[in-house]
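Before relying on records like the one below, remember that each one covers exactly one chain. Contacts with other chains, cofactors or solvent are not represented anywhere in the record.
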Amino acid sequence: MAHQSELIARDIGAYLHVQEHKSLLRFITCGSVDDGKSTLIGRLLYESKLIFDDQLTQLAADSRRVGTRGGELDFALLVDGLAAEREQGITIDVAYRFFSTERRKFIVADTPGHEQYTRNMVTGASTADLAVILIDARKGVLVQTRRHSYLVHLIGIPRIVLAVNKMDLVGYSQASFDEIVGHYRDFAARLGLTDISAIPLSAVHGDNVIAPSTHMPWYAGPTLLQHLETVEVDAALAGQPFRLPVQWVNRPNAEFRGFAGLIAGGTVHRGDRLRVLPSGREGRVARIVTAGGDLESASAGQSVTLTLDTEVDVSRGDVLAAADAPPQVADQFEATIVWLQDEPMLQGRTYLMKTGTRTLSATVTPLKHRVNVNTLEHEPAERLELNDIGVCELELDRPIPFEAYSESRALGGFILIDRLTNNTAGAGLINFALRRSQNVHWQALDVDKQLRARLKGQKACVLWLTGLSGAGKSTIANLIEKRLAAAGRHTYLLDGDNVRHGLNKDLGFTAQDRVENIRRVAEVARLMVDAGLIVLVSFISPFRSERRMARELFAAGEFFEVFVDTPLAEAERRDVKGLYRKARRGELKNFTGIDSPYETPETPEIHIDTTALNADQAAGSVIAHLASRKVIAGA
């Protein structure tokens, strides 16, 4: 909806021109449960005369049916659209509303107050320029007030409006207002939040929302709408060094090759020298192309296509940057993570990382601490649960151009994605590159994996045997290695039990230890494949995510997942080591198949049904598969 300007009737062209050139303010409302966030936005729209007649009629009907105001207009219903929100009188999901006044356009995100919906609040805050933090005048600063303030600080929202709501319920007392503002400023100072404007109001009655309140003559500051209309929208991006993450390489014909994207920072002029990162190659801007024609310059917030005066390799995900002030490039970082998934974040687990227009793999190693947002203390932790905030180290599978999130949201922010479900798992902020990522580089070697394998008369690969304890993995792997050795092949067998006597002796059987167990073994297997060996890995490896992580360490055709498929009842019947009996008695915790899950492979290269094949036959089928794939010859 838009403000109904008189220009619409007199000069529609002039009206559209004004709308096009109005500044835009994105802001969020947040705070504890039932502080009046939705009511405030509804009242703001109503008092600004931004509600159409049919909406007002529907609001009146909804207020009588499900409202909480005893038949009066319940402005919260303008924003709370979900049935569950109306039934409970709370906000669950993020509700976005667009509106405009004569002076400015606005996009407001009404975010939930419940702790369990922290992830929803983070989503709404990620693009905001300002946060309106509501406080119930009767309750003062609460846990969720502190949590949301910490998140606002973390996400880098520079300006805060402290809206002390429901002043009518404390008799419009200045003393109550001053006490709350004092307590909040003390807490905010510990976070480094300084740009705070405090406004006393009553969203239900409209006090200080649009017009000054006659009930609070002691307050001489602006109303909420006046503040939102006049607060400076940050134009600092245009003054930063030039940055353009490439979204698309535009190649309509052999004569044109341009690099399209949204300018994330700075200004570019025709003729400027740019550096392509992470490659480091350089070129000068030949053209700045837009739908409306070529430009001589473009600034942050504009979408453009740049062409360069030289043939430079540029791909989606690369960053075009000012050559004299480029961002850093690294593959290891310290980062702050807000966890958004029901499944916990585990040390050693690999996730997909989406940063800008680039997607890559990131491994959590290690989790340094969790932040207690109430006390701001750093607490030791081995995992992050839903809505937790923690600091960890990340290792990426390749270097990326970056800047600290405090300097650039575009180059410092990212999300983590679950590799199996493709659900967003966490939101992250890069703090800095680890020094070791700057000091450690790949050393070029003349003797490579292919040469080592040729000297052995084979192709290097890994056979990854997975299955329940007692499935027969070690027995089958041992038989495979004996046959390969008899044929003169060069092999090595990494067995789950044996490795835990040395390399992984410090690991237990919790979920995070199992993840780290597989990560280490996968890295060792990769080194052995690089040596030209046929590597057999016999591990339960219960989680699909870690098996996929292991697979992606190897080149195409080097990784063979062998599912040794044995029903749980049969594995328990065998129970050579007596482990299942201990687990059933509760003497062995986190035992796969009993109180820890086993995720069966979905598309293994080799599927061995041990109820139909004995160990010798199973080994033979694996050897035959290797021969068919020309890993070995003459088998």
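The radius of gyration is 30 Å.
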